[in-house]
Amino acid sequence: MSATGVAWQRAVAMSSDAVAEARKGRLKQRYDNEFRLVAGCVPYRVNKKDDEEVVGSPCSSSLGDDTGTAEVEVLMISTPNRADMVFPKGGWEDDEDVYQAASRETLEEAGVKGVIHA
């Protein structure tokens, strides 16, 4: 899986053509030898704060710049099979490139969409 990030927005009110249908099964998934290939990303967003003190937390980092302060938030998800938090990822299918697969999996698993930066 390549390291990618995505600036995210909640996918609450989207047009019907923008909604990716969740895929089921593994018939179309890519394999390398006997290993299933997966695609995913690290969803993040930058919140700029002007004239506010940014309080750090385990899931955010403060950035200083000339226009004020910004806070980076990283999105992780829980999964029923693990006790820890993970980044959204899933099977890379043979009819899509790695960026399409990462976008689809992030929307399916975390409910967010955004722009992928490689």
TrEMBL record:
The keyword Hydrolase applies. Residues 34-118 form the Nudix hydrolase domain. The keyword Chloroplast does not apply. Gene3D superfamilies: Nucleoside Triphosphate Pyrophosphohydrolase. Pfam families: NUDIX. Keywords: Hydrolase, Metal-binding. GO terms for molecular function: hydrolase activity; metal ion binding. This is Nudix hydrolase 12, mitochondrial.
